[in-house]
Every structure is written in structure tokens, then in C-alpha cells.
């Protein structure tokens, strides 16, 4: 059984450390944790594959970062899922979430896109919203700042103090969801 774990974000160094790319930061952390390197795939995604667990209880996992912009993520991810014959219910999408506080994590299956262009693109491409999401809380901007500008800014100095621990918990959540299922993941991580 193969799982596809996708970190949403925009390509390029200017976006790498922004709030909108927190999903890709979790992918980078998983790569480091399992001593993996990304390689280019014809789907327009960068990927790395590994096994989680041992023996007959192990899970095949493909970590992926799309090379396209957030609002065009669906096509490359759908092509990658088709290549590996992964159904939407075996896809985990890591994404930034404005509607939960900074560093909070929520796991869920399906739901709306809540205005998130990456989720909108995925749901449109797959024709279903029935995939897992790990919502990584970035909070809302203070005052009058436009949320579209806010997500494209780097984390604040204060947020950066706990960013590494937040990213590490995001990676733990991915592995726990695959090994233990949604109910146990929600009771452990949905703080």
C-alpha cells in the first residue's frame, strides 16, 4: 500500500521560508529525518520514496513537492498519483491554515478548501475532496494586513523560536496518521 504525502507551497528560494510553504518545510524535515534526497519526476514534482515501519507492517511512502505554483498544484500531483496508482484516500496534503492559531495542527479527511488555492486546485484536478489534510496553523494577520500578503511573508522572529518544534510535530503527525489512522491521530494532535 503506497501513501503519497504532498507538501504544498510555491517553488523558488524567495518563497521557501514563507508561511505558505510550511507544508513543504515538513516534507524537508521528513527528508532529513529519513536521510533522503528529492529527485525530479516527469509529473513536475520532486519526490523521494521510503518505507515506514518494518516487515509486513511497513508502508511505502512517496514524499512530494510540486514544482508548480500553489494554484496549479493539482495537475502535477494528480499525474504523480496516477503514475504510482495512489487513490485520493491514500494522499496526505500538508498545508498552511489561517483559521487555526500558530503552531496548532489539525488532521482531517475531506472538507472544503476554505479559500486555499492549493486545496482548490487539488480538489478540482482529482474531482473529489476525499483526501487527508494536515492543517498547519499559521494564524491570521494582525490589523489590516491582507491575508494574501501575510501568507507570503516569513515567520516572525517570535514564531521562529518554536518553528523547528512545530515542523517536527508536523512530521510526527504524518507518520502517526499513516501508522495509526485518523481517529488516534486526531486525539493526539488536534490540540
Give the tags:
191 residues, RNA-binding, Rossmann fold, single chain, Pept_tRNA_hydro_CS
* Helix percentage range: 25-40%
Mean pLDDT: 96
Oligomeric state of the chains present here: single chain
Percent strand equals 15-25%
Order of helices and strands: EHHEEEHEEHEHHH
Please, how many helices? Answer: 7
Q: Give the biggest beta sheet.
A: 7 strands, mixed
Provide the domain count: 1
CATH architecture: 3-Layer(aba) Sandwich
The Rg value, from CA coordinates, equals 15 Å
End-to-end C-alpha gap: 29 Å
Q: In words, what does this structure look like?
A:
This protein is of the alpha/beta class and 191 residues long. It has a single domain (2-189), classed as Rossmann fold (3-Layer(aba) Sandwich). The protein is 38% helix and 23% strand. The chain is built from 7 helices and 7 strands. Strands 2-3-4-1-5-7-6 form a 7-stranded mixed sheet, sandwiched between helices. α2 (22-33) crosses α6 (157-180), α3 (74-83) packs across α4 and α6 packs antiparallel against α7 (182-189). The longest helix has 24 residues, at 157-180. The model has no long low-confidence stretch (mean pLDDT 96). The record marks 10 as: Discriminates between blocked and unblocked aminoacyl-tRNA. The record marks 96 as: Stabilizes the basic form of H active site to accept a proton. Monomer. It catalyses: an N-acyl-L-alpha-aminoacyl-tRNA + H2O = an N-acyl-L-amino acid + a tRNA + H(+). Keywords: Cytoplasm, Hydrolase, RNA-binding, tRNA-binding.
